[in-house]
């Protein structure tokens, strides 16, 4: 039998020790990117993934460039003694059914869903205790199910050289020599060199230099580390040797590289809008159906390749583009991230670990536009202050505002991070309905069907956004024509204002600015006096 001892949320902003001498440990990543070392085996981690460490196994988290948030679930396993009247016997070895390391279930969202639910339970009564145990048992089931698949995969070896390449990618900071790597692959040094070139397309020396210089590029662009610190972190003896190696590989000095214009591919439309706010048009980007507003013409003129966000770019397309910088958020798997980082430096924005301003500053640092970002944020703050004062004079801040979005197959009430909620509630200080505040445990957005909105979520003003699909528009029209909505609209001081989803969907500088401008037109009016 198993018994969960505790679940805690850990924010790792630097190297963090997670070892537990007595309890088994499950680690479910909430956000951020980094590495988790279990018994000296380094494992790249990402959002939604789950990892297991046995009691006493040395476990350490290493965040990449920013913090790494995870749930640490501690538990014990017991079996009955031969004589049931004696104390149960504690089991420390679960290797037969739960091997240490990553537990890849295929649906990482399930791990996070169960861990979130466990963390949210308060054991006020017996029902809550039972609910907690059931959720924990379900989480363990998912872990064991994943472990079965992992064991089968390990038996199907990908080849000695490919395993060595993965080892190099994880241990590039260390001194690596051909003979030792050949011994690890169980091959003679000469045959190892031949096979390595056949598999990787380059010599061991060139491949290792490329891996190290790739990490140097990322640290130059994404951190404020000094060159001496970077040299040490990637396995070079000092900054002078690093500079020579860097120039040999790239043709320019580290400082010149930081300031150089780069061919950028954005794998997230929100991050593309960060670039546009900084005056940069990427070479290629994923896009939402409504595009990039007034910026679309400029992007088309500069030859930016736009691809629907739900289709994406194939591996072959990315390789042909030869990007010099990739942008994405932390919903990418470790496997995909490894592929991206082989191509070029890849900035991973931790979506839920900071707000849009934090995202903006991270992007600005990567493209050497921090001064421009500071000026943009300063101008936005002044505009937000002016809008807030105008709305206050019009009496708008005293009214409650509900933010509701209708799509073809779903509908949501928003609390934070999208559909203008950041602007309405945080930037402008307008009031959130009490019914929405009471649902804070449900996250940033709450699924609510159109027929369930009124009267449960009534407010002085309802901001309605509708997806551009015919199905979503039909759902919204049926909702607005219903008796409940007609009665609501006839009440004094009540109103429904429809806003453009193309402007209100995003969580990025341009979208936030558009939402602020629309809010000024909607609420800074005399009619609110």
Commentary on this structure:
The chain is of the alpha/beta class and 529 residues long. Helix content is 45%, strand content 19%. The chain contains 21 helices and 20 strands. The strands form four sheets. Strands 1, 3, 6, 8, 9 and 10 form a six-stranded antiparallel beta sheet that branches. The chain has a five-stranded parallel beta sheet with strand order 13-12-11-14-15, with helices on both faces. Strands 18-17-16-19-20 form a five-stranded mixed beta sheet. Helix 15 (370-393) runs parallel beside helix 21 (509-523). The chain is globular. 34% of the residues are buried. Mean pLDDT is 87; it is low at 151-158.
Distance between the termini: 65 Å
Largest sheet: 6 strands, antiparallel
What class, by secondary structure content?
alpha/beta
| Low-pLDDT sequence parts | 151-158
Q: What's the assembly state of these chains?
A: single chain
Q: Into which percentage range does the β-strand content fall?
A: 15-25%
What is the general shape?
A: globular
* Count of extended strands: 20
Report the total helices.
21
Protein name: Helix-turn-helix domain-containing protein
InterPro entries: ABC_transptr_periplasmic_BD, Homeodomain-like_sf, HTH_AraC
Domain Fe/B12 periplasmic-binding: 263-527
Organism: Cohnella cellulosilytica
Question: Which keywords apply here?
Answer:
alpha/beta; 6-stranded antiparallel beta sheet; 19% strand; 5-stranded parallel beta sheet
């Amino acid at each position: 039998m198993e018994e969960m001892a505790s679940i805690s949320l850990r924010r790792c902003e630097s190297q963090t020790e997670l070892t537990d001498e007595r309890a088994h440990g499950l680690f479910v990543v909430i956000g951020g990117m980094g590495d988790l070392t279990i018994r000296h085996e380094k494992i790249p981690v990402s959002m939604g993934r789950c990892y297991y460490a046995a009691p006493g196994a040395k476990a350490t988290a290493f965040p990449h460039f920013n913090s790494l948030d995870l749930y640490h679930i501690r538990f014990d396993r017991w079996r009955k003694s031969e004589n049931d009247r004696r104390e149960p016997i504690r089991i420390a070895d679960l290797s037969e059914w739960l091997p240490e390391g990553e537990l890849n279930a295929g649906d990482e969202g399930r791990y996070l869903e169960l861990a979130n639910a466990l963390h949210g339970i308060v054991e006020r009564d017996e029902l809550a205790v039972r609910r907690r145990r059931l959720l924990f048992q379900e989480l363990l089931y998912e872990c064991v199910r994943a472990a079965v698949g992992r064991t089968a995969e390990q038996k199907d070896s990908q080849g000695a050289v490919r395993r060595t390449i993965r080892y190099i990618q994880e241990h590039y900071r260390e001194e690596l020599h051909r003979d030792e790597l050949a011994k690890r692959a169980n091959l003679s040094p000469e045959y190892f060199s031949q096979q390595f070139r056949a598999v990787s397309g380059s010599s061991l020396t060139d491949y290792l230099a490329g891996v190290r210089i790739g990490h140097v590029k990322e640290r130059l662009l994404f951190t404020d580390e000094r060159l001496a610190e970077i040299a040490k972190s990637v396995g070079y003896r000092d900054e002078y040797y690093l500079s020579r190696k860097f120039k040999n590989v790239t043709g320019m000095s580290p400082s010149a590289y930081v300031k150089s214009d780069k061919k950028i591919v954005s794998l997230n439309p929100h991050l593309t809008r960060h670039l546009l706010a900084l005056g940069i048009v990427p070479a290629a980007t994923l896009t939402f159906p409504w595009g990039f507003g007034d910026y679309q013409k400029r992007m088309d003129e500069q030859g930016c390749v736009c691809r629907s966000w739900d289709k994406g770019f194939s591996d072959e397309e990315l390789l042909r583009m030869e990007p010099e910088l990739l942008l994405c958020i932390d919903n990418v798997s470790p496997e995909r991230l490894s592929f991206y980082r082989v191509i070029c430096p890849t900035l991973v924005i931790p979506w839920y670990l900071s707000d849009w301003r934090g995202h903006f500053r991270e992007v600005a640092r990567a493209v050497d536009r921090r001064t421009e970002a500071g000026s943009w944020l300063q101008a936005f703050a002044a505009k937000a202050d002016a809008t807030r004062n105008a709305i206050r004079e019009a009496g708008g801040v005293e009214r409650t505002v509900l933010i509701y979005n209708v799509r073809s197959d779903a509908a949501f009430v928003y609390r934070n991070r999208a559909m203008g909620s950041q602007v309405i509630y945080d930037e402008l200080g307008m009031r959130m309905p009490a019914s929405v505040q009471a649902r804070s445990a449900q996250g940033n957005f709450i699924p609510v069907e159109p027929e369930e909105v009124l009267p449960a979520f009534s407010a002085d003003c309802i901001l309605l956004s509708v997806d551009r699909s015919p199905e979503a528009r039909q759902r919204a029209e049926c909702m607005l024509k219903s008796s409940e909505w007609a009665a609501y609209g006839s009440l004094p001081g009540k109103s429904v204002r429809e806003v453009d989803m193309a402007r209100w969907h995003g969580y990025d500088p341009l979208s936030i600015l558009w939402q602020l401008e629309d809010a000024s037109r909607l609420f800074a009016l005399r009619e609110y006096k």
